[in-house]
Design a protein that fits this description.
2 copies of one chain form a homodimer. By secondary structure, chain A is of the alpha/beta class. Chain A has 2 domains: 4-49 and 149-314, Rossmann fold (3-Layer(aba) Sandwich), CATH 3.40.50.1100; 52-145, Rossmann fold. The first copy, chain A, is 50% helix and 15% strand. Chain A contains 15 helices and 10 strands. A 6-stranded mixed beta sheet of chain A has the order 1-2-10-7-8-9, with helices on both faces. A 4-stranded parallel beta sheet of chain A has the order 5-4-3-6, sandwiched between helices. In chain A, β4 (94-98), α6 (104-112) and β5 form a beta-alpha-beta unit. In chain A, α1 (4-17) crosses α3 (51-61) and α3 (51-61) packs parallel to α5. Chain A is globular and about 55 Å long. Chain A binds chain B through residues 19-20, 22, 24, 27-28, 41, 43-44, 46, 48, 108-109, 112-113, 262, 265-266, 269-271, 273, 302-306, 309-310, 313-314, and chain B through 19-20, 22, 24, 27-28, 31, 41, 43-44, 46, 48, 108-109, 112-113, 262, 265-266, 269-271, 273, 302-306, 309-310, 313-314.
Chain lengths: 315, 315
């Protein structure tokens, strides 16, 4: 299991390539929640999400030999962008598998950063299984979205939160595969265990939450349109960390996530993706419990398309 | 006239309260321009614009006696937000005049930061004249949007650009009252004079550009809907700096600014206000001159309302 010492050590690699992100207080959001709200702006990172901290830390941890052999993964989302970005920064060849019919804009972004994008199968599961085999054949490194080096890299944002606001009382984090929430848990629970960490997922894709509740590794329905929290199969290593540390795990509807997204645009003037709004949606759903508390919501990313944005504004 | 030494000295006050902003390269924008484009993300500052650097530097420069007497200014835009923010940070009372019928959302933001907002007259000119008199009566300090301390504060972003990309060849900057472009000129022309600084304004509010061209202080028509570049009367001190240093001053239509805004949202996933998109619109308008160059466009701010954003996306 990842330790806080490993996360602290990751700062050296992360800050060689990336900067800390701001933690801003917003009066408008605080009034909506009836409590003091700070936003952790991971949407300000390059490629628009917290994931890039993990990609950079993973790439920095490779031996020269591993770098030569290249990285393999599957994702057209923030994980894929992150691996493409980090690979370019370290001169590593990235091979990224996506299903046939993957979003052409996102594919173009990864190609623009020099990644080779390969199309395979009907969904991400089949693309991932295939590219994992390909990595073995080619003797390259397959990267799963919850690898320890990724958790250590993304955990650096939680260290920044504690540096900037040591008396925070609750931190709300969106959960996809769980790297962000686990990095946050490890940092917070080994620093000041009075701070609560609350995960948030969509009711339309509750696999990680149900697995956490039941203690079993479930796979299940996934009908959410919120990309960054759309997880079909629970990940073992992140479930283990969550089981040990996580204080609560909320489910909120897609609709309430999009409402939160609208409010965040209105009050912070930042572009936010669905997953990036889930934490605030979660906080809104338990507003009554938060009176008088200092809370942080993690704005994990800003990668929303103009089409999605238009839908959110047309509500 | 402001010197580069004064701007360098301003860093001490600015970085006590604010962080440097990122300068990111975007492949998609580079392809559109046929050259290498970096964006300076001043929209990542608190209150969403570069102006806050100036407000903080000005507040830090006051004597204890001046701080007690308070600051007076007129603006419901980024200048007003910046003075409200800096005043709160330094425990200064801010009095901000706005015309009757000023945008209630923006008024609420300034009040939220503890500023006293006073309504006077039909437009900003009359609100400004009135509050300048009020400052005299009350023995407080009136702040004009082009005060030297403001130029010195905002000039720190240009120092960051040169630190991050020393071989930049052209920097495009939107022009309102001119504090941003002047800070950039003073920094660039006293560092590496081969770098060109290009101002951009709307054809629908060309007063600063025409004054620069003619060498006279003009006032004139102002029909633009792009808030941050809507200047009716030329400012003497910024015109003087621009006359000495500025390489070119482009006019682009409101329509092309909104088109640029759409492209910036699409390719950077950042929320941008009209003025924040003007620099990129200017670069697009002279695309043919830029081939093979390294250019920076300053994204000066992100404060766009959901209503304006909807209009931009509906195009």
């Amino acid at each position: 299991m990842v330790t806080i010492e490993q996360i602290k050590a990751a700062r050296k690699s992360v800050y060689k390539h990336l900067n800390p992100t701001p933690l801003y207080h917003y009066t408008g959001l605080s009034e909506l929640l009836g409590t003091d709200v700070w936003v952790k702006h991971e949407n300000h990172q390059p490629v628009g999400s917290f994931k890039v901290r993990g990609g950079v830390n993973l790439a920095a941890s490779l031996t020269d030999e591993e770098k030569k052999r290249g990285l393999y993964t599957a994702s057209s989302g923030n994980h894929g962008q992150s691996i493409a970005y980090a690979s370019r920064a370290f001169g590593i060849k990235a091979t990224i598998a996506v299903p046939e019919g993957a979003n052409p804009e996102k594919v173009a972004l990864m190609k623009g950063m020099g990644a080779e994008v390969l199309f395979h199968g009907d969904d991400f599961d089949s693309a991932r299984e295939w590219v994992e085999e390909l990595a073995k054949e080619k003797n390259g490194k397959f990267v799963s979205p919850t690898d320890d080096e990724l958790i250590c890299g993304v955990g650096t944002y939680a260290l920044e939160i504690l540096d900037d606001l040591p008396d925070v009382e609750q931190i709300f984090v969106p959960v996809g595969a769980g790297s962000g929430v686990c990095g946050t848990c490890v940092v917070v629970k080994n620093g000041n265990s009075n701070i609560k960490v609350i995960g948030v997922q969509s009711t339309e894709a509750p696999t990680m939450q149900r697995s956490w509740k039941s203690g079993e590794l479930l796979s299940g329905e996934m009908n959410t349109t919120v990309e960054g929290v759309a997880t079909r199969v629970a990940f073992e290593n992140t479930q283990k960390i969550m089981k040990k540390y996580l204080d609560d795990f909320l489910l909120v509807s897609d609709e309430s996530i999009y409402e939160a997204l609208y409010l965040l645009i209105q009050h912070t003037h930042n572009l936010v993706e669905g997953a990036g709004a889930a934490a605030f949606a979660g906080a809104l759903s338990v507003k009554d419990r938060l009176a008088g508390q200092k809370i942080v919501v993690v704005m994990s990313g800003g990668n929303i398309s103009t089409g999605q944005l238009k839908k959110v504004l047309d509500v």
